[in-house]
Amino acid sequence: MKEDSEKEQRILDTAAELFSRQPFHKVLLSDVARAAAVGKGTLYLYFKSKDDLYFAVLFREFSSLIDSMRSFLDETELGPDGQLAGVVRILAEHFYARAFNMELLGFVVTCPVTDEWKQLRADLWSLFEGIIRSGIEQGLFRDEDPALTARYISGLVRAVCLFAPGAAGLDEVCRHASEFVLRGLGKKQ
Amino acid sequence: MKEDSEKEQRILDTAAELFSRQPFHKVLLSDVARAAAVGKGTLYLYFKSKDDLYFAVLFREFSSLIDSMRSFLDETELGPDGQLAGVVRILAEHFYARAFNMELLGFVVTCPVTDEWKQLRADLWSLFEGIIRSGIEQGLFRDEDPALTARYISGLVRAVCLFAPGAAGLDEVCRHASEFVLRGLGKKQ
Amino acid sequence: MKEDSEKEQRILDTAAELFSRQPFHKVLLSDVARAAAVGKGTLYLYFKSKDDLYFAVLFREFSSLIDSMRSFLDETELGPDGQLAGVVRILAEHFYARAFNMELLGFVVTCPVTDEWKQLRADLWSLFEGIIRSGIEQGLFRDEDPALTARYISGLVRAVCLFAPGAAGLDEVCRHASEFVLRGLGKKQ
Amino acid sequence: MKEDSEKEQRILDTAAELFSRQPFHKVLLSDVARAAAVGKGTLYLYFKSKDDLYFAVLFREFSSLIDSMRSFLDETELGPDGQLAGVVRILAEHFYARAFNMELLGFVVTCPVTDEWKQLRADLWSLFEGIIRSGIEQGLFRDEDPALTARYISGLVRAVCLFAPGAAGLDEVCRHASEFVLRGLGKKQ
DNA sequence: TATGAATGAGAATTCATTCAT
DNA sequence: TATGAATGAATTCTCATTCAT
Fold first, then answer.
1. Tally of CA atoms within 13 A in the half-sphere of C189 that contains its CB
2. Which positions does the record tag as DNA-binding (chains A, B, C, D) (predicted)?
3. Chain B environment of A172 (Cβ under 8 Å)
């Protein structure tokens, strides 16, 4: 079905761009095709349907986000507090890089949630949760319900990236958000 | 042209219900009409288009949310910490009451943001910001950027309501989230 | 069914005005009602349907045109040539007075032609035909087929009124058209 | 977007046929599509809207009429009188061939008159006017206002074709109308 | 008689999907 | 593989007509 992965990636890039700017029903497949410089029929060589394309985009974006975080955590020498600040930073960078990613963490409220999708979300949260738990073990954090807190973080970062007052730069926002979260986790300062 | 505001409200209620369960393009105006027990043409007596209806729904929900908060703040005797816990609770209740409301605070990513809409959002945030600032004045909170923090709160509550692990009840979630926020604001405990 | 003939006339006037400016399907009954300052339902007290209203308008305009001509012919002392010039003038005045009348004599090609309507048309033509025949009898005109010629006249006047080059005034047009017709009828000059 | 001009022509043919038998609002695009044996969506591949299709039909018919006349005039050896009889004949044939064409010269009363359309009308008239003027130069006709007379002719032919008494055949009508016009132009006989 | 909100059948238009090339 | 013209089911929107007041 696919071979020319370069073309598939171009379609995904284009679709990601368009889906990030308009709601699902305003994005026409003919727009996607034109912007990706492929024929409309070609889309169907790579994706079963419009829904399929949409989820492929979400999936790819989400996966790459999680991969970035995993790489960071694998390589860093920082403690849980530095790790948390780091993943907040990565999250924020993703949001800034493509408005679309903002949809990733919750927008698609009303869409059917596939198992694949649930898995990804769970991966993200358990990643946060892991950091929190290791912070607790080290006596750095305290939190009665790390699973819940893990869910706060993405929503918090999403909100502030979406709506940050114009003046606030990425650095400023990340620093402030990290401190807020760390204090929220009871980090002694 | 109209007069029967009761009918308009029924349409809005119905539409809110349907839009909360399906994405925009899956909600048919004929469904709305049938569910609201009015003729299809009647919808157009009250709303210019499907988009118009959609925004009217969003707007009403958001307005009612803000009104609830304002009433609460007007009547309560609580200090800033109690106020914050209160508005978190109200936010969470709205999200639980109708999944749809979850779109409220994030939806507008891809949609044309009107001035009316911006105003509502600004109202919500300044409401949070006001509480934070009075907490700071009273030496209860510390926060370098209350405007930024105000933006966290709704995103945080939204995320946790959307994704709270099944077991977590509303009370539990609210208590935990409030404490997290209050700690994040440096409240001495 | 009707009593308040003043209101009926107002509706007819208004409808005539609107039908003269737009094709049938662009004229909405709500426009007619508003412009006539009556309720939409009121239209149905006086006319069975939109079609009915349309034909009532055509009928009234046409009848008044024929009446004008008949009055003129009854009162004039002129010979057939003066009579012809006179009815051309009346025709042209009607066309100028209300663009709508231009539809009268043929526009409604594709509409169902009722018997009433056919009768009116026949009346108009026989009126022209009568003048021509009396001219022939008096040795003033010659024409192998007065019935055919009668049909020319209204079309000719209609065309020139519709499309007269901007500069041409009513007087000029009438004089020229009459002379053309009279010459066409072989009037010695 | 298109290429298959054959299909476009088939749609135009079909639409011309249907528009010639019913008023605009009675012609459904689904009828057009079915009769032209194309999908409903295909219509929109070639024409922006129903209005657009309608004007395309009018335009094509009118253009072909003028082309016929031009060809005739280019090839004929006849003098101005024969030329006039010839174009009258062509006009009448067009009207007979398709009732629809009858709208051509009058329809535009109530419709937005585009420049393209004005140009066509002007072309038709200047064609008549040219014949008349050359007749005048040759001492065959006399006419104080050939521009006005040019406008009579189409209206005259249209009227008689529309309303010719049943018995009158095309030949008969053309001969009679031509003679009438020629006499109107003062042709010595 | 008069009204105009309500209606819903009916129309125009759109767009995901197919398929012949 | 790649295309984009063709499709028609699906959807939004319109508007003549009705009817409760």
1. 17
2. 28-47
3. 145
Percent of chain B whose pLDDT exceeds 70: 86
Residues D176/C148, Cβ–Cβ less than 8 Å: yes
Question: Between chains, do C158 and D155 touch, taking CB under 8 Å as contact?
Answer: yes
Please check whether residue B113 touches A, CB under 8 A. no
- C157 vs D contacts (CB less than 8 Å): 155
Cα A75 from chain centroid? 20
CA–C1' B50–F12 (A): 8
Give the distance, in angstroms, between the CA of residue D102 and the centroid of all CA atoms in the same chain.
Answer: 7
Question: Which nucleotide has the least CA–C1' distance to B51?
Answer: F12
D178 to chain C: closest CA residue: C184
Confidence of residue C1 (pLDDT cuts 50, 70, 90): very low
The CATH number for C57-184, chosen from 3.60.15.10, 1.10.357.10, 1.20.1600.10, 1.10.150.20, is 1.10.357.10
For residue A39, give both structure tokens: 């024929």
Q: Are A88 and A156 in contact (CB under 8 A)?
A: no
Is residue A93 scored above 90 in pLDDT?
A: no
**Burial class of residue D4 in the structure, from the number of CB atoms within 10 Å of its CB (0-12 exposed, 13-18 middle, 19+ buried):** exposed
Residues of chain A in contact with residue B183, where contact means CB-CB under 8 angstroms, are 183-186
CA distance C100 to D68: 31
> B144, B149, B186, B148: which is closest to A186 by C-alpha?
B186
- Estimate to the nearest angstrom the gap between the alpha carbon of B15 and the chain centroid: 16
Distance in angstroms, CA of B35 to C1' of F10? 19
Residues of D with Cβ-Cβ distance to C126 under 8 angstroms: none
- Given a contact cutoff of 8 angstroms between Cβ atoms, the answer to whether C119 and D151 are in contact is no
Residue C174 contacts D, CB cutoff 8 Å? no
> How long a stretch of residues is chain B?
189
Judge whether B20 is closer than 8 Å to chain A, CB to CB: yes
* Residues B135/B185, Cβ–Cβ less than 8 Å: yes
Ordered by start, the domain boundaries in chain A are: 1-47, 58-184
Give the nucleotide with minimal C1' distance to the Cα of A45. Answer: F1
Q: Give B61 CA → F18 C1' in Å.
A: 35
The alpha carbon of residue C8 is apart from the nearest alpha carbon of chain D, in Å, by 25
Which tens digits make up the pLDDT trace of D127-165?
999 999 999 999 999 999 999 999 888 888 878 777 776
Same fold for the pair B1-47 and B58-184: no
Q: Kindly report, residue by residue over C89-145, the tens digit of the pLDDT.
A: 998 888 777 655 445 444 444 456 677 778 888 898 999 999 999 999 999 999 999
D84 against A186, higher pLDDT: D84
**CATH of the structural domain C1-47, one choice from 3.20.20.390, 3.20.20.70, 3.40.50.2000, 1.10.10.60:** 1.10.10.60
Distance from CA of C144 to the nearest CA of D (A): 8
List, as ranges, residues 39-98 from D with C-beta within 8 Å of C: none
DSSP state, residue A38: S
Q: Average pLDDT of B29-51? A: 95
Distance from the Cα of residue B119 to its chain's centroid: 14
CATH of D58-184, one of 1.25.40.340, 3.30.450.20, 1.10.357.10, 1.20.120.80: 1.10.357.10
Tokens 């031009």 — which residue?
D70
Residue C144 near chain D (CB below 8 Å): yes
Say whether pLDDT at B102 is over 60: no
| Å between C58 CA and nearest CA of chain D | 16
Q: Do chains C and B touch (3 or more CB pairs under 8 A)?
A: no
* Sign, Cα dihedral of B158, B167, A122, B185: positive
Residue with tokens 């002392």: C77
CA distance A127 to A66: 9
Grouping H, G, I as helix, E, B as strand and the rest as coil, residue D186 is: coil
